[in-house]
Amino acid sequence: MDSIVKIDRRGALECMIWAGTGVLWGLSGGVPKSLGLLGEAMAAESGFTFLQISDSHIGFNKPANPDALGTLRQAVAKVKALDRKPGFMIHTGDITHLSKTTEFDTAGALIGETGVPVHYVPGEHDFLDGNQGKAYLDRYGSGTKGAGWYSFDDHGVHFIGLVNVLDLRAGGLGRLGQEQIAWLADDLSSKASSTPIVVFAHIPLWTVYADWGWGTDDSAAALSLLKRFGSVTVLNGHIHQIVQKVEGNITFHTARSTAFPQPAPGTAPSPGPMTVPAEQLRSMLGITSIEVRMGDKPLAVIDSTLAS
Amino acid sequence: MKRSGTCIAAFAALSLVLVGATAASNAAVSDHEPDVIASPRPNIAYAIFKTVVARKIGAVGGMVLASNNAAVPETVIRIANFTFAPPTLTVHVGSSVTWKNEDDMVHVVKEQNGAFTSDALDTGDTFSHTFSRVGTVDYFCAIHPHMTGRIVIEP
Hints:
The complex is a heterodimer of chains A (308) and B (155). By secondary structure, chain A is an alpha/beta fold. Chain A is built from 8 helices and 11 strands. In chain A, strand 6 (197-201), helix 7 and strand 7 form a beta-alpha-beta unit. Chain B contains 3 helices and 8 strands; from the N terminus they run H-H-H-E-E-E-E-E-E-E-E. A 4-stranded mixed β-sheet of chain B has the order 2-1-4-6, with helices on one face. A 4-stranded mixed β-sheet of chain B has the order 3-8-7-5, with no helix packed on it. Chain A binds chain B through residues 62-64, 97-99, 124-125, 127-128, 130, 165, 168-173, 210-213, 269-273, and chain B through 81-83, 103-106, 108, 110, 112, 117, 119-120, 122-123, 138-140, 142-148.
């Protein structure tokens, strides 16, 4: 498994060379950059930044982080303290741990304190109500299709929120389903190939590590629809750590959780919550800022931890 | 039938103790399992009763099985490290199987085609299902679908 990590790192380094200074990445083994520093560096490029937060798991209280609400509160404070207000946030799922009403209420109220609009997609933990995700969809499903997928445009970028956590099949990975893929084809049909695309969903839309279910069975069908576009950025959560790669026109990136870390692929018996010394926890949790750049440049994806 | 009646009486007595002693009750289930299997006609009342007992265990929650695996009865499937142990379990028809989640993560036991689905099982929670037909049942974790298991039900 070590080899997979090395390949990813090598691939990421190649991407940095390829893109020159166009891509600013805080690598998982690299130095986390603060959003404050980022703000100055990016201001000349465009006026538009959005944030990604993920896997807040409100309700989780196990040893890996007995206070998932407290660390989300820290992330929210970080957003509130930003000099440059982001255009909006995306939350890539697992808002709650058990889909309980109180968990949704608590998470929604706290995230709402940022005063920043939020576009959500669900994680599998948000669909645990035994009622096909009604608890989630009653809150965040307005104006969406199917199990909660949707798209919108902002600053010339086409954003697509997908759902790959419903009706999963035995032995499989994440799943989009034919209905959603057909919707995606239709959604993209009117878009010029020069339109920058941002796709976000909970489970990675490429196979990070199949043995732990870190991938989406039918993502290839969705990604093939994105091949004609010049700039595609895919943002996911679920694995509670940063993994990224570039494949052709598509940049893939996963965000840290605000709740608890998970082990690197294959480095532990299971992908379950990883307990680290308390003083290290916040360096393994964080949020992501994405700078939209004009023209064909890739979006700049910069991660920062709760410790920075 | 007399034997089964004795079982019921024994479990009725045990059930009073169960709420406070999960590990002990699991051992008791193990001890009595051969009686059910040997019974010429699987006693449905007994099976239902066992399910109720298992639910009582589940309601207690939060308790951890004895670390000695040998003490775990064969009709308990441990969910640990994102696997079902044992991955394949053979039981006699009429048996109740209990899944117990020992992970720090939520799991959901679901029959492959949805014939039965547990609630979200947090750490220490259990789910029981009684298998009333001979055959093979494949199941998985509905939110971690790479986790799969099988129950083989024999006459």
